[in-house]
Design a protein that fits this description.
Elements lengths: L1 H29 L18 E11 L5 E12 L4 E12 L5 E12 L5 E11 L4 E10 L4 E12 L2 E11 L4 E12 L3
Length: about 190
């Protein structure tokens, strides 16, 4: 009877251990689990692709090379347009002149290769010339940068202000269109 009693005790201990383990697992499964918050990004309507921290490089009309860097880009396939936030464009002309253009927002027409910039637009040349405006357009076909908005410009020791600007990249020719004021500072 002692052998049977020992086997019974062992079986009873095993059953109790299994019941305890099952009870412990059941309690754990029924307890509410801590969940990490899920971040959800909602894309604007009609956006086909969204990307963060992008670099896009292309050789455009007139062999102008441009690099577009942006914090965020939305591609709209229907219009073949890319919309950028916090955009930085570097234009390099065939003669090697480089211009950097920064803006809060921008649009790039993939078909025409035109760029529209708006919101605190700053253009800088490698010679430290600087143009600021609210809106700026790059026309790839005519290879020019232009605006009808107010413009402030610093060129060497000359400060210019006016409304409207056209800059032909190939010729490095700039025209301020209206209400032009110039201040020449002594060096």
């Amino acid at each position: 009877m002692t052998k049977k009693w020992s086997r019974f005790k062992i079986a009873l201990v095993i059953i109790l251990i299994l019941i305890g383990a099952g009870w412990f697992i059941l309690i754990k499964l029924l307890q509410p689990q801590e969940t990490k918050p899920v971040s959800l990004k909602i894309m604007p309507d009609k956006v086909d692709i969204q990307a963060e921290d992008i670099l896009y490089t292309e050789i455009g009309g007139g062999n102008i090379k441009y690099e577009i860097r942006a914090k965020t880009v939305y591609y709209l396939k229907e219009n073949d347009v890319a919309e950028f936030e916090e955009i930085d464009v570097t234009l390099t002309t065939p003669s090697g002149n480089t211009y950097t253009i920064m803006s809060n927002r921008g649009t790039y027409n993939m078909t025409k290769r035109d760029i529209t910039l708006q919101g605190h637009v700053v253009v800088e040349s490698e010679a430290n010339d600087r143009i600021t405006t609210d809106h700026l357009f790059y026309d790839a076909e005519d290879n020019k940068i232009y605006t009808e908005s107010f413009v402030a410009m610093v060129y060497k020791n000359i400060e210019l202000k006016g409304t409207g600007l056209t800059f032909w990249l190939d010729e490095r020719r700039l025209s301020l269109l209206q209400q032009v004021e110039a201040t020449i500072k002594q060096r």
